[in-house]
């Protein structure tokens, strides 16, 4: 509506366990391909660089309203006002205030999700994710080969010509999350937010249709983890691995916290099965991206059917005491359907 370029945002980690060295912002183009974003989102949103500004002092601050009385209509009226000629003299309009952009319930999901179609990781991060995924599948291949060779008369290579599948679990049990989720449960009077290590292991082990032996990649922020026993106690036939066991911790240690998260996000997104927490933004956006993949393949509902990119929420009980199936409702008129901070997950 303003017919303006969006100045390239910086990205920052959101942690409740405040450790300053992990909260340093990173430029958008250090994570995502800048020109690729503009090409893919042409006609929808356009990014610009601060270095392209002619006059950085010519800034007008647009104060957004907040609270229950601030409606969709008031949002739109304010934007119409700022699209008038009288504001063209300002090179930059800075939108400020709590929730400075339109409230989440103003956005249709399909519009919001378009942005994610335009986000392509820079080559460096994508290649690091390639290495991690290759290592996971390599461990899975060795595991299956040993299992088959131990069976009488089995051909060790009979089912290993295709990439060996793996499950990615966003195991949210780190310090920052446990502080946050317990407070959230108390505030919302909801019990389906925090999940213990034991609950996660049991529910993942009960996913209907999982064929063992199978590698389980645990996406966890190692530096924020107090429990060192996350690899113990899993169901027979499931081999849990994390960065150290995979010997890929050296890949992650080269980068700041946010880039490590970007690599893990990509590894989880590519997994054959993904299991996360519906109250986690990280998990919810992966479920959204995997829903988009299914839709591109012609699948509109994953509930009760076998699909290529299944996702589950382990904090919500599903069939056979497993995690609940998860698919984003892309036709919803409200961003609440994206489901982060919710136990309503479409299926």
Give a short synopsis of this structure.
The chain has 347 residues and is an alpha/beta fold. It contains 10 helices and 12 strands. The chain has a 6-stranded mixed β-sheet, sandwiched between helices.
Provide an overview of this structure:
One of its GO terms (biological process) is fucose metabolic process. Belongs to the glycosyltransferase GT106 family. Pfam families: O-FucT (PF10250). InterPro entries: AtOFT1-like, GDP-Fuc_O-FucTrfase. This is O-fucosyltransferase family protein. The longest helix is centred in the middle third of the chain and has 27 residues, at 123-149. By secondary structure, this protein is an alpha/beta fold. A hairpin with a 5-residue loop joins strand 11 (311-317) and strand 12. Helix 4 crosses helix 9 (257-270) and helix 9 (257-270) runs parallel beside helix 10. The protein folds into 2 domains: 6-101, no CATH class; 123-338, no CATH class. The chain contains 10 helices and 12 strands. The protein has a 6-stranded mixed β-sheet, with helices on both faces. The chain is globular. The mean pLDDT is 83.
